[in-house]
Amino acid sequence: MDVRAQLVMVFNLDKCIGCHACSISCKNIWTDRRGAEYMWWNNVESKPGVGYPKGWEDQGTYKGGWVAGGNRLRLRALGKVPTLLNLFFQPNLPKLTDYYEPFDFDYGNLYGAGDADDQPVAGAFSQISGRKIESIQGGPNWDDDLSGSRLYAANDVNLEDRGIVEDYGRMFLQYLPRICNHCLHPACVASCPSRAIYKRGEDGIVLVDQNVCKGWRFCTTACPYKKVYFNWDSGKAEKCIFCFPRTETGQCNACAHSCVGRIRYVGVLLYDTERVEQALLEPDDRLVEAHRAVILDPRDPAVREAARKNGVSAQWLDAAVNSPAYALVKEFGLALPLHPEFRTFPMAYYIPSLSPVLSVEGESHELMEHGLFPEVDSMRAPLSYLASLLSGGNRDVVAAALARLIALRVFTRAKNLDQPVPGGVLERAGLDEAAAVRLYRLLTIGGYGERNVIPAQQREEQDPHVRKGAGGFGILKKAGRRK
Amino acid sequence: MLNVFIFVVLPYAALALLLFVTPYRYFSNRLVWSAYSTQFLEQKALFWGSIPWHYGILPVLAAHLVSVILPGPMKAILGNPRALILLEDIGQGLGLLALFGCLALLLRRLRTPMLKAVTSAADLALLALLLVEVATGVYMGIFIRGGPLWYLYTAVPYFHSLLAFNPQVEYVADFPMVFKVHAAGAFLFVAVLPFTKLVHLLYLPVGFLKDPPILYRWRTSKTGE
pTM of the full predicted structure? Predict the structure, then answer.
C-alpha cells in the first residue's frame, strides 16, 4: 500500500446556475495576459452542448486519454517512439479555431469616430492578429444556454437521441463547470517528451514547469479534457494550477471561492498509488466502482499508518477525515468522475443533476405529494445521458446517486413540514437519519469551513532551525559551502 | 582577405559565440527556450513546410558532420563509385526536400495574416539564411559533381585544421563563390544559433523513453524528510 493524498474538487451540478463567476475570477487571476487570451482554465459548459474546445469529448477526433489494451494502458494518441518521429509536426494538435479566436472591442471608436449619419460602433478585433473581425465565429461558451442547438447541442456525443434538441417538451439543460481534473494517471504527464509536466507528490496537483517545457504540444492532445493549453506567445504549455498559492495556505481555489451557488467542495482524498493502474484496466462500466476502491478510508488505522510513513502529516490526515470529498465521493457515492472511460482517473467529481425531476408536465409535484420515487426513466435529463457523461455508461451508479438525492428531498421535506417521514425511504436509498441530516447540511447550508477542508502545506515544518531567521530573505535554494 | 574572413575569423567567432552564449542563455532564462511552434495558429501550410524541411535537412546535416568526425570510414565507403553515386543522389533528394520545405515555411510566414503577431524580423532573417544555405548546397550538388568526395578531401581537412587551431585556408580557398557563400552561411548559422529560437535543435528529448509514465515531484523527500 503506497498511500498518497490528493486535493479534490467536487461539483454539485444541481446547484450550478451557469453564471460563469468561476470562469471570470480564474481569468482575472491567471489568464488575462498575452498568449493566454483564449485560455479558460475554468469554464462552464451548457449541456447538452459541444463545449470548449468544440467537441472535446470526441476522442476519435482529439485522441486524448488512455486506452486499455490487454494488461496495460497506452496513450490513445502517440507512444514514445512515434512521439519522437512526430516532433516536427504534431498530427493531432487542436487548432485555435477549435477553441475560438480571442477578440476584444474597439471602444476607442465610440469616442474618436468622425461625424457620420450613423452611430459609431465598437467593432471586434482579433487579440492575436489585431485585425478587424467582421463576424465573430466563436467564443468560450458560444452555445451557452442551448443557443444554436441544431449546430451544437445536437452534436453532443453523450446524446442517445439527437432529436431531443428540437423537442421542447423533452429538452433539458444543465451546466457543467470544468477545471483541470488533476488526474491520478494523467495522460498529459505521460506524453511530455521533456518531462516538464509533473504531479506534486504532496497534494497531487499537476503542474507544467515553464523552465523545462519546450513547447512540443503533445500534452495538449493527450489530455482528453483539453485542459492543457498552448500559449501562442511564450511557446509553452499552460494549465490550471488548482490555485496552489491559495490552497497551500489553506484557502480554497478562486473558482470555488467566487461560486455564488456554492456548488463546489474542496477536500482531501487518500488513495493507493499501487492500485491506480490496475483499476484503470477495468471495462468502461466498472470504472466508477474501481475508482472508489482505490480511494481509501482515512479512519482505517492501517491506511493512516501507511500514509504517515509516506509523509502525510497529521493535519492532512485530519483533513482527510473531515473531507467533504470523501463523504460525497466514497461514503455516499453521490459524486461521479467526469468521463472515467478516458482512463486518466480524474480527481474532479460531479454530483449528477436531479432537477427537473419529471419530464411530463403536470406530474412534477407528484413526487412531493406522494413521497414516491420517480422511475429513473422518467427524469427529464435521460439517464443514458448522465451515464455517458459521468460513469462510463453505467446507469446503475448514476441511478443510485439520484435515488439518494431524491430520498434526501423526501426526508427533508417531511422534516420541514413536521410530517412523518415515509417509511423505508432512506433505507431503500442506503441512508439512515444521521447520514441524511449530515448530507442535507453539506449539500445546502454547509459553511465555508465545511465545504472547503484544505490543510495548509506545513512548510514551516521542514526544518525550523534552518528556516529560522531566513523567512522572506530570498534564499530559495540550498545556501552555504559544500563540504 | 575575403578568404581569411570567411574561413578563419567567421568560424572562430561563431564557435566562441556558440560555446559561451548558449550556456549563458540556458542558465539565465530558460523561459525563452522553446521552438516557438506556430502550429496552433496555422496547420495546413506548416505540414508541407515543417516535415519536408526537418526530414530533409537533418540527414544532410548529419552527413556533413559524420565526414568530419569519421573521415577514415567515409573514405572507405566513398571509394566505391556506386556508393558515392547512391549517397550523392540521396543527399541531393534530401536537399531538394529541405529546399521545398524551407520555401514553404518562408511563404507561410509571409502570407498568413494570423502569423504576423508571432513573426519577428529574426524569424524571417533566419528562414532567408536557411534558404540561401540550402539553395547554394543544392546548386553545388548539381553543378559540382562528386560532392561527398570532394567535401571529404577539402572541407574536412580544413575543419580538422580549424579544430587544431592551425587554420589552413588553402584547402578551400580556390572554390567558387557559391561554396564560400555556403560556408559563410553555415558559420553565420552557428553564430546566431544561441541568440535565436534555433536553440531548440540543441535539445533532443530522449530521457523520457526510459521513464515510467507518471512523473512525481516531491517538495521534501517522500518519507517526509
Answer: 0.90
